[in-house]
Structure prediction request, 608 residues.
Amino acid sequence: MFHEKIRQIFALLGVTLTEFARAAGCDKSNISRIASGARVPKNGGAGARRLVDAIYLCSDEKDGLDALCTLISCEDRTSAHRIRERIMAWLYDGEETAVRRPERTEEKNGKVPYRAFGERLDALMKLTGLSNIRLGRSLNTDPSYISRFRSGLRSPRANPKVMSDLCSLLLSRALEQGKGEALGKLIGMPEEALSDREAAWEWLYRWLFSAESGDGTPLVERLVDRIGSFSADIKKPPLSFEEAADSGILGENAAFYTGVDGLRRAVIRFLGNIVERGEKELFLYSDQNMEWMVSDPEFRAKWVTLMILCVTGGTRITVVHNINRDLSEMEEAIESWLPLYPSGMIRAFWCRTSGGDRFSTTMFLCPGYACITGCNIGGAEAEKGLYRFDTDPALLGAHEAFYGELLNRSGELAGVHGSENIGRLGEEDITSLSVITNTLSLATMPETVILSALERAGADEAEKARVIDLKEKRLSVLESKAKKGFLHEFVPTPGDEELFEGRVPMDIPGFSLAYTPSEYAEHIRGILAISERCAGYRFCALPEEAFEDIRLLISDRAVAVERLRAPYVTILLEQPDLCRAFTAYAERIREKYKQDRLTTKAMLERYL
Prediction:
């Protein structure tokens, strides 16, 4: 019987109802009814096709296509289409075959139209005759950003202003073109709402953006964009040292400071003397409300100046961030220090233990020089806060031990490393990895292609050896993940014009090179060979790059954001909530663009 065959499939693949429902793009309860025999989809209908697609995709994901083909007696195992046809015939064996109806738009590939924001935006742009370039100019944004919206690689929720402006523009254009009725039909807007511009705008806004998930995708995109855009040079201090650190303050000997004005004065004395003395270590922690730092623009400029002078003067800064509430705090904590990251002098941590609201603690420590400490009633620091300024060596030793215990209870929030360091992502306990990048990876590049490109660039033997060694290390990580779990690699594939004009970049660190068509073909052969021997390696083609000059390596325990242009640094993130946000982003991309291996193989073979 039909439901018994479905259960056979579940047992063969070791797939759960939840996994199968996700692959079928339907509710778990629907699959449960089918598995119990309470419902049998119509032979040849849209429901049956979705079921067949889910069986095929789950078999491919579980590396069970050979076992499935044996079960259903499928002789032609080289074509995804043939295997799907055989699954349908096997499921309904002995039953009368239904006449196959023409597929309605909403049934193509088993998908309901306009389920995703990109699909909805695409429909609205076609309705109003807007191209990526025209819409980008109207919104004062790059057309490539609009393209990534339509392809689903980017979310508008990272930019609320763009969301609002987008709705206003689309509504105005539809009304000016006399397409209000067509707009209402597309988005299900009643006529009475269309006659009220404010109501129409709200209806359009809800329809357009309701398909967007409430995960951490906006945070991921904002954070990656900021990492990708910071300069190779540390920005110039807004003030001179003399303007930032008054000589009278630097020479003070006070042991105590009170209130927010006292704290600011103590900090100027503290940082100014660190700059003058050329101190090499600075440890910072504060869970006090940051208004004392940011509310006064004059003091903020002095703080920024002295921090820049510290790092450019060789002072290494360790910061333990107080993060208790949500992802936005982590985003702010990382972004606030990004301008100093190119120095390589910043180490950022987050404290694993939670704090309370009764008291606030501040500690700024420079071993061997001084320490500012304050423990105050939360919210009363502005007028009643009391801050010690200790210089006694015995007290400094005690403060250093105190801060050391805090570090023991902290994890690294954002580590800055060289471009070749992927941190613990290469370790054995991380078995699955998602890589989102802008071109074919060095890990899968054949050695012949590497040497051909480097020879063309005039590289010496030492440079060639360095690149080959790095390639072997990255391939080792890839194969380890692909054998123990999965490595999904998301890469944009080029058009012929882009390829033959030499505009497809190569992933060879230290060199700005582009593929020749023959080199690209050879690299594709290498990828196909790896796919054959590593069942867990999945190449996923993207229509375009998700981020410019950025590679993301994402696992559930660690994330690496690798810059592919100067400064060539890797930002490593290990905070669990941040990792979950990045993992959810990778999962969203995977669900949209995943393909079975046979279809991927056929797509890649066009480059050979």
About this structure: The first strand starts at residue 256 and ends at 258. Residues 97-112 have pLDDT under 50 and may be disordered. Residues 34 and 40 are 6 Å apart (CA to CA). The two ends are 45 Å apart (CA to CA).
